[in-house]
């Protein structure tokens, strides 16, 4: 049997769950990769900034050493010391020019010899470094000036911006790297800027030198994280998409499995696979056929005939039992209505209903349509109340049974004596028949207690003036006992098994 019950879901819910099942591992994986990429980029900028500081410190060590050697010469005649100034330029690879200062006046330069220029200590960050955008010799070319002052003596050594921009360009090949000295900063293209240091939106890292008055900023432009992920993680992207598809398929299959009972029942209903089978009911006295109970069977295309106990509970839970019963009534009318004019007396047709049928008044219209298909007065429609679900005596329920009785529909309690609600139904609803459960009938002649219960039910029905039907009659002994005790109608394998409509009509003509 292909039914395993689980909760039914709407189609839109299933689609959403399937999509989420597929997206969840992808989004989670992308989040992890995004975090990992950001972490890798942060480590990269930190290492790059530290390496740039190391390189700049080495360059400034070179210029500072030149300045320390020249400071003692400050105050001497420029003609006497200019060769010493030029010697430092020659010996020091990063030194572009050297200058001597006396009492804050630059008076001797390695480039010009005697030279007069006032020195403003405020131009120098922490009194030592000044990032300039060129000088009269090389305008618009970056210079980093190092100042060393001891009393009135002082020395200035300049570092060519070409070397600085080279470090920014080569070390920060994939990183935006900036050198900041006071309010000015140098970019990798060798240009000095006076505005605020730009924000580096991805993995920004600012590191000051522990020895000199400058700061290095490293980072990446916006979108670098995604560019890094595209360049470094393509195989992982494919793997994430694969996992997402697999997860989505698993979610879809699990949902399909979990909702398969209701879907399969709905499919079977639309395919008209639920068909009526008829089991005869006979008079207790003459054993003449007086009616039939209409039983639902599922003619499954693969499984064949499916027992009702395997699918009726699912139908009741899913709410499909109502349209399934309506279809059963319509098929029954199509089969039996054409021969109803030949019935010698009203023929009883019993159809099971559940609590689901009693939630509104649609059953009244279904019964009215059913009765209208038959010759007037040729049948009695008997609705048999099953007790798998409790039927509550609400205002709607009471109105329903009142209107059904007004139509001439009779009410029977099925499997009387086995359900907790049987006596309650007798008190709350206007019942016409009791149907004795086959478990009591089967114990006739075998179990004294069951026989006493059976006798009590028969006696109760007589006192309440109710018709009584015994189910599950299989032996002559049982039939004789029930007839002797005044049971009105008998039903069971002794008189006929449930059979398809065509077989039942053919057999009916012989009874």
From TrEMBL:
SMART domains: EAL
Catalytic reaction list: 3',3'-c-di-GMP + H2O = 5'-phosphoguanylyl(3'->5')guanosine + H(+)
Chief localization: membrane
Compartments it resides in: Cell membrane
Keyword Cell membrane in annotation: yes
GO-annotated cellular components: plasma membrane
Keywords: c-di-GMP, Cell membrane, Hydrolase, Membrane, Transmembrane, Transmembrane helix
Enzyme Commission code(s) on record: 3.1.4.52
Enzyme class (EC, first level): hydrolase
Pfam families assigned: CSS-motif (PF12792), EAL (PF00563)
UniProt membrane topology term: Multi-pass membrane protein
GO terms for MF: cyclic-guanylate-specific phosphodiesterase activity
Positions of the EAL domain: 258-511
InterPro entries to which the protein is assigned, alphabetical: CSS-motif_dom, Cyclic-di-GMP_PDE-like, EAL_dom, EAL_sf
Record's keyword annotation contains Transmembrane: yes
Regions that span the bilayer: 12-35
Domain of life: Bacteria
Family annotation (PROSITE patterns): EAL
Name of this chain's protein: cyclic-guanylate-specific phosphodiesterase
């Amino acid at each position: 049997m292909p039914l395993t019950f689980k909760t039914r879901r709407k189609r839109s819910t299933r689609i959403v769950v399937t999509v989420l099942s597929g997206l969840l591992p992808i989004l989670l994986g992308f989040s992890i990769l995004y975090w990992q990429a950001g972490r890798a980029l942060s480590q990269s900028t930190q290492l790059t900034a530290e390496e740039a500081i190391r390189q700049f410190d080495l360059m400034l060590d070179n210029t500072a050493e030149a300045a320390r050697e020249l400071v003692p010469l400050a105050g001497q005649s420029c003609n006497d010391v200019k060769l010493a100034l030029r010697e430092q330029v020659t010996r020091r690879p990063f030194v572009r020019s050297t200058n001597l200062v006396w009492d804050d006046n630059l008076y001797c330069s390695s480039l010009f010899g005697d030279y007069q220029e006032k020195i403003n200590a405020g131009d120098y960050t922490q009194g030592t470094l000044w990032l300039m955008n060129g000088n009269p010799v090389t305008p618009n070319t970056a210079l980093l000036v190092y100042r060393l002052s001891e009393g009135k003596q002082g020395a200035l050594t300049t570092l060519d911006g070409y070397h600085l921009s080279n470090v920014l360009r080569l070390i920060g090949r994939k990183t935006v790297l900036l050198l900041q000295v006071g309010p000015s900063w140098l970019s990798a293209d060798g240009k000095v800027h006076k505005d605020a240091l730009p924000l580096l939106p991805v993995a920004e890292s600012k590191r000051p030198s522990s020895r000199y008055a400058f700061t290095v900023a490293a980072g990446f432009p916006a979108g670098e994280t995604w560019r890094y992920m595209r360049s470094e993680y393509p195989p992982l992207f494919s793997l994430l998409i694969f996992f997402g598809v697999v997860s989505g398929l698993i979610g879809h299959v699990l949902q399909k499995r979990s909702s398969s009972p209701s879907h399969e029942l709905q499919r079977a209903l639309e395919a008209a696979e639920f068909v009526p089978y008829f089991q005869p009911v006979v008079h207790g006295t003459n054993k003449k056929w007086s009616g039939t109970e209409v039983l639902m069977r599922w003619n499954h295309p693969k499984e064949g005939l499916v027992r009702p106990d395997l699918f009726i509970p699912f139908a009741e839970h899913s709410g499909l039992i109502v349209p399934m019963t309506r279809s059963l009534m319509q098929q029954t009318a199509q089969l039996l209505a054409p021969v109803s004019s030949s019935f010698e007396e009203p023929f009883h047709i019993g159809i099971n209903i559940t609590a689901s049928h009693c939630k509104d008044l649609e059953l009244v219209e279904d019964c009215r349509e059913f009765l209208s298909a038959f010759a007037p007065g040729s049948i009695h429609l008997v609705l048999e109340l099953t007790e798998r679900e409790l039927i509550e005596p609400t205002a709607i329920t009471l109105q329903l049974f009142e209107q059904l009785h007004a139509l001439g529909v009779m009410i029977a309690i099925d499997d009387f004596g086995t359900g907790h609600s049987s006596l309650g139904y007798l008190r709350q609803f206007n019942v016409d028949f009791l149907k004795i459960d086959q478990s009591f009938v089967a114990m006739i002649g075998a179990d004294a207690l069951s026989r006493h219960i059976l006798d009590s039910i028969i006696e109760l029905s007589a006192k309440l003036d109710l018709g009584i039907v015994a189910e599950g009659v299989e032996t002559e002994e049982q039939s004789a006992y029930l007839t002797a005790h005044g049971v009105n109608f008998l039903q069971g394998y002794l008189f006929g098994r449930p059979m398809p409509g065509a077989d039942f009509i053919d057999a009916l003509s012989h009874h």
